[in-house]
Amino acid sequence: MTTIAELELPADEFALWETLDALPDARFEVVQVVARNRNNAIPYLWVRCDDLPALSDALENDPSVEDVTLLEELDGEFLYRMTWTYRIRVLIHILVEEEATVLNARGGDGRWRFRVLFPTRDSLATTHEFCEASDFSIDLKQVYELDSTRHGRFGLTESQYVTLVTALELGYYDIPRGIDLQGLAEEFGISYQSVSERLRRGHRNFVRNALGWGSLDEED
Q1: What is the pTM assigned to this prediction?
Q2: Bridge-partner residues for 135, per DSSP?
Q3: SS3 state of residue 35
Q4: Rounded to whole angstroms, how far apart are CA atoms 117 and 3?
Q5: Element (H, E) at 123
Q6: DSSP string, 150-186
Q7: How many other CB atoms are there within 10 angstroms of residue 129's CB atom?
Q8: Which of 77, 165, 176, 185 has the fewest CB atoms within 10 Å of its CB?
């Protein structure tokens, strides 16, 4: 079954590690990446940085990148296309060996996080084995199966999905509200505390997975 996984890797084990080290406040968000071959990959990525000259210098001196092109500037964020040529063995394995898709990748605060769509659960397991055998410090943060139901698309459990949909249908999100938490608790035959926690966790999973799992600045 198709599987989505969130993987975390230390910044110094991946491309752009020198740029991230030189600019610790910078944040990178990959919006698309393709592997040209087994030796390099081409990402399009947004960079949030307060010092464009320093960013340009860091990228120029970073041994892991080539052919850096600034495509767009928008409200203090910069869209780049570049070629990653070094320290991308994990990425090449994911894209080429496992034929997986990187849905989102973010770098900053000493780490990279990847949200990857694997064609099977076995391909995720093979990637984890590859990382361990190659001494990469991969950390598996979250895994869920992308089943054919709506709730599976956003990492919701079935109970979270049903609770959110019922809350919507009964007017919990209306102004004014058509039902409150106590009413929802009675609807499901569970405690106020349980329905509150189910809603909060459902909201968190929905927002994280719909928008790309949230900010690197926040702890899980």
Answers
A1: 0.71
A2: none
A3: strand
A4: 6
A5: helix 121-133
A6: HHHHTT--HHHHHHHHHHHHTTTTSSS-SS-HHHHHH
A7: 10
A8: 176
